[in-house]
Amino acid sequence: MPRHIFITEDNANDHISVFYAEPAFIVEANREDLAKLNLLDESKKPGVYILVGDGQRYVGQASRSVFSRLHHHDNNKSWWTKVIFFGREDGYLSKAQLDYLEATLINQFSDNSLKLENETAGNTSYINKMEKLSANTFLKQVNRVLTNVANIDLFENNEEPEINNDSGHNKIKFNDKIYMGKSGRQVFLDVMVDVLTSEEVESLSPIMTDEEPTATAFIGLEERISKNGVRLTKPIPDTSYYVYTCYSRERLQNRLEKMASLLGKEIEIQLD
Question: Which of 39, 112, 147, 179 is the most exposed place for a label (fewest CB within 10 A)?
Fold first, then answer.
């Protein structure tokens, strides 16, 4: 069954975009347009929101009006420049689902190089199996629209510096081979080239996608380019794979450890 996605923009301001993919709506806006957000029906509904700044995120929820929470944060948080929020067009997301969605996103951001402003892991209220299934399906739909239509990766951080070491001490020992170089990302890529051209590639399915790679499913079949035209992936020669490389040192190590764990092998990592 085909999915219909509608996109609207404020004609007087190009910084507010609304995406509709029944039953979900997703809104992207700059902080400077907060007053105009108050005119959107979507901002008066329950939902989950993400405050976005350079290398920084905050996840929150509103059981009544997203705008009221954004107005509050406009007064007490100075660092954010953009907001992304989503909810259901019919306005129905139960408190249990809101708690679950918020906690899920907080957990995902915690496994990332971005600075997360949340001081807690979110509420842990009871959610039954049907509501959890519905919430997971809903979040997948939101992520699909953000990635494939809005070209937004919530976990993307283009400000991360390259990992260079003039003495060439970025070093990885894996699968009886030693990889060294000045660029941590290049050493990471060298390891991934060998893995993705081996017969063990099928074991990596949990971190692979048939679409563009993301910060979590970092191996994919399509090139990923940011809204600013920055290439976020590198092609693997002689294969159809692309690998997401826009990571901090800590995140690179995390991804390598995840890869090695899936293959059931040990890895030694030194990224200076």
Answer: 39
